[in-house]
Structure formats: structure tokens, C-alpha cells
Amino acid sequence: MFVVPVIDLMGGHAVHARRGERASYHPLATPLARSSDPLDVVRGLLGAGPFRALYVADLDAIRGSGNHAECVRAIRAEFPGLEVWCDAGVRDVAQLEAWSSTGLRPVIGTESLPSAAALASMLAVCPSAMLSLDTRGAERLGPAELFVRPQAWPSTVIVMTLERVGSGRGPAADRLRAVRALAPDRRVIAAGGVRDTEDLETLEALGVHAALVASAIHDGSLDRAVLSRYAGP
């Protein structure tokens, strides 16, 4: 298992994501960077651990109020060896192709999908895309059938538990266990709630492929020694 740091973008800033309550997000203050400028924050994250990949959530694109395409291109240019995974709220093939042309690995979030057919169309042109199964508490965000049809999923699936993001509540072990049981042949990525080394060990024991982490990196709960252990392949 490996750790992938997360940066959430809104209004030109890296922001502090908490429980999926996007209206209350504010520019990120972190000891890893001098400002909330996205490139400053990415530099700080990459200084905290030898990461091989970065997860970018373009919250403006997800909400349909602009995008951070230029910022993502700048990240790609400055860190050409870094694999960038990006959820930019893609809803159709045209949007997917526009984002994948920047050299990143697209993430298709169920909350942005109009239908299961839209997912099938996008995976047909970009089979390397990941699917994010987005939930907030008991609420499944997006086409309900996608949460119970693993045959429609790509090889890598993110279990995005928005209510746990930045919450300090720990990962959603039961939900992850259920998804692993439903699709044992898929690579499952945990998103939301990781607090410390014990949580990473729990996820590893569950057979999770990777963990998306932000707060525990910024606050130092996961230090460089631990992050080096979970640097990835």
C-alpha cells in the first residue's frame, strides 16, 4: 500500500477540505508552505515525503464554476516525473479527453456522472481512468446502480467518504471492506479520515491499494520516516 497526498483547489488557492462542506472551505494554512498558492503547497507536500503520485481535486470544475487547468499544467511542468490523478468533475467524453490531454490520470467521480452509460462511454476511450465512488454519510452521490455493479467499474476504484475528509474520525473500514468484498479483483483506494500510522496499518491489513491523505501530512501526524515506508512502487 502507498500514500498519495491530496491538494484541493478552489478559487485559485489550495484549500482546507473538511467533511465535504465545500461552501465553508478556506485557503489552506500549512507549515509545509509559505502560502496557499497551489504550487507552493505541492512543493511542500513533496518535501514531506518521497511521493510518486499526487491527487488533485479541482473543486471549481466539480461545482461547474470554472477550473484550474492552467494550475494543473503548471504542476505537470514543474514535476514531470510525478503521476497526477485529477478529479475535475468530468461528465462526458469531451471533458474527459480535454483533461487527459494534459498528461494526467483522470478520476471520474460518481457525484458528477449523469448516468452509468456516461461512465461506460468514458471508460471506452480512457480505460486507465479511475472511478471515485462518492458518498456523504449514508448518501450515495450519483447514479445508484454504479455502487452495486462492480462489472461497470474500471480496474481502480476510489472509496471517497466525504464526511470523513479532514474530520479526524479515521477511515471508513466497513465501507472499504464491503467494496473489497464486492470487487476483490479491483484496486481499492481509501479516501477520507486517515489520522496516523495505525490507520495506514489498518488499511494495509484490509488489502487497500493506496490511501489519499492530506491533513495528517500537513499536521505532521505522519512524518517523513512513516511516509517513506508508504512511498509506493
Key structural traits:
233 residues; single chain; alpha/beta; 8-stranded parallel barrel; 24% strand
Strands of the widest sheet, in order across it, are 1-4-5-6-7-9-10-11
Helix content bin:
25-40%
What is the N-to-C succession of helices and strands?
A: EEEHEHHEHEHEEEHEHEHH
pLDDT under 50 segments (min length 5)? none
Morphology call: globular
Please state the structural category: alpha/beta
Mean pLDDT score, rounded?
93
Compute the CA-based radius of gyration: 16 Å
Sheet-strand content, in percent, reads: 15-25%
Assembly category? single chain
Summarize the biggest pleated sheet. Answer: 8 strands, parallel, barrel
Give the count of helical stretches: 9
Count the beta strands.
Answer: 11
How would you describe this protein?
- This protein is α/β, with parallel strands linked by helices and 233 residues long.
- 31% of the residues lie in helices and 24% in strands.
- It has nine helices and eleven strands.
- It has an eight-stranded parallel barrel with strand order 1-4-5-6-7-9-10-11, surrounded by four helices.
- The longest helix has 11 residues, at 38-48.
- The radius of gyration is 16 Å and the shape is globular.
- It starts with a strand and ends with a helix.
- 44% of the residues are buried.
In short:
The protein has 233 residues and is of the alpha/beta class. The protein is built from 9 helices and 11 strands.
Secondary structure elements and pairings:
Elements: E1 2-10, E2 13-16, E3 26-27, H1 38-48, E4 53-58, H2 59-63, H3 69-78, E5 83-87, H4 93-100, E6 105-109, H5 116-125, E7 130-136, E8 139-140, E9 156-161, H6 173-182, E10 187-191, H7 197-205, E11 210-213, H8 215-218, H9 224-229
Parallel strand pairs: 1-4, 1-11, 4-5, 5-6, 6-7, 7-9, 9-10, 10-11
Antiparallel strand pairs: 1-2, 2-3, 7-8
